[in-house]
Amino acid sequence: MKIINIANIITFLRLFSVPVILLMILENKLETAFWFFLFASMTDIFDGYFARKFKIVTEFGKILDPISDKILIFSVLIALSYKSYIDLPIVIIIVLRDAVILLGAILSILLKKKINYSPLRIGKITFFFQIIFIGMLLCNNANFFDFEILIRYFGLFIIYLTFISGILYLIRWLREILVNI
To answer: What average pLDDT values come out for the chain (181 residues) when binned by 10 residues?
Structure first.
């Protein structure tokens, strides 16, 4: 199976849009950053759709897609935090969740245990709401809409959802590691 296909090209578009989004945020061109972020977020829907529809799922794509997601989310959140559009603790919680997931993967490799790396449904839901949250932050600070009150409550929801999903990944992987000891 070819590594480069339409699904992986779409994933690369997401990855390559990140520097543009970051530049726009850092230059306070939040309207443009929002539209590029919206485009990048939509690529996550289409790459998976095309990969499944045309049966072109590759091992490379299975690795590239979540890495592209993380690079998009982490870099945009860090840039927004740098510009004081989001509180740093929210960014830290989101990054720590993925550090826990990565730690679980490393632990399984070190213990030579096979674990399930497929995403949990709550992980996909968490990513979806993180995308919505970032879009709201960009819209609010670009003065498209006033989401200030909603952002406060949605931020708490994101923290809760991120925390719960991190714990569920950890529980799943610990069970799999401990069962096979």
So the answer is: 86 97 97 97 93 90 88 96 95 90 74 75 94 96 90 94 91 77 58
Whole-angstrom distance, CA of residue 33 vs CA of residue 39: 10
5: Cβ contacts below 8 Å, ≥ 6 apart: 50, 51, 54, 56, 58, 61
The stretches of 27-147 forming alpha helices (DSSP H) are 30-53, 59-82, 88-110, 121-141
Angle at 164 (CA atoms; ends 64, 69), nearest 5 degrees = 15
Side chain identity, residue 143: N
Burial (CB count within 10 angstroms: exposed 0-12, middle 13-18, buried 19+), residue 143: exposed
Report d(CA 111, CA 19) in Å as an integer.
Answer: 37
Single pTM value for the model? 0.89
